TrEMBL record:
Pfam families: DUF218 (PF02698). It comes from Desulforamulus ruminis (strain ATCC 23193 / DSM 2154 / NCIMB 8452 / DL). It comes from the Bacteria. Residues 51-167 form the DUF218 domain. Transmembrane segments: none annotated. InterPro entries: Cell_Envelope_Assoc, DUF218, Rossmann-like_a/b/a_fold. One of its GO terms (cellular component) is plasma membrane. This is DUF218 domain-containing protein.
Length: 224
């Protein structure tokens, strides 16, 4: 009888803390989604910012951008050509000589007609959090339009605004993508992780470095 009472007590505690964790998980998720939606723009809206921050995604060994990344770069190029941003900041993973997102993003934007001096590259954007911290601390970005897919946009915008950037977002969904359900589910955990990062741990990015103002010449960030 005593063992059963102990087991029942442990089950109640487990259920209580599980419920509490789920409540926190979905409350934070809802908060970040609603905040991101409140600062979302349409490309045709009237606005102006220093730069479009283009978040990286998979690039093949041959240098082919995945569909999501093609759409992000094309959306940012359209914003530049319409005069709504003055620079493009390509941020992604260039952590080794064998994998390079940002140079291929830059080359694609140049192919679409963007002057090379107006393209900045963040070679150490290894996560959304790192990209936003580095945008503020390294590239001195004060105002930006963040360009990524709709599922990713609320988290990126939330992080940027929490760091003091005047950030808004434009969704770059121009195709139907594979794995939409997986991406949405993954974002619930990612939003909670970055909520804790922003408001509690505030970790430093993997790399920082000297300031390179987004108002200058982007070629100083080019390595090729």
């Amino acid at each position: 009888m005593g063992n059963w009472l102990l087991i029942r007590s442990l089950i109640k505690k487990l259920l209580f803390f599980t419920g509490l964790a789920l409540f926190f998980l979905f409350t934070v998720n809802s908060h970040i989604k609603s905040t991101g939606e409140a600062h979302r723009l349409k490309p045709e809206d009237n606005f102006k910012a220093q730069t479009a921050i283009v978040l990286g995604a998979y690039v093949s060994p041959q240098g082919q951008l995945c569909d999501m990344l093609v759409d992000r770069v094309q959306t940012a190029v359209d914003l530049y050509k319409s005069g709504k941003v003055e620079k493009l900041l390509m941020t992604g993973d260039h952590g080794s000589t064998t994998y390079d997102e940002v140079n291929h993003m830059r080359l694609y934007a140049e192919k679409l007609g963007i002057p090379t001096e107006d393209i900045f590259m963040d070679h150490a954007g290894f996560s959304t959090y790192d990209s936003m911290v580095r945008a503020v601390e390294v590239f001195c970005v004060q105002s930006a339009v963040i360009v990524t897919q709709e599922f990713h946009l609320p988290r990126a915008t939330y992080i940027a605004r929490s760091l003091g950037m005047e950030a808004r977002g434009v969704a770059a969904d121009r195709h139907l993508y594979r794995g939409v359900e997986y991406n949405e589910a993954r974002e619930i955990l990612a939003r909670n992780k970055d909520f804790v990062n922003v408001h509690l741990f505030q970790p430093e990015p993997k790399f920082l470095g000297p300031a390179i103002s987004i108002t200058g010449d982007g070629r100083q960030t080019h390595d090729q």
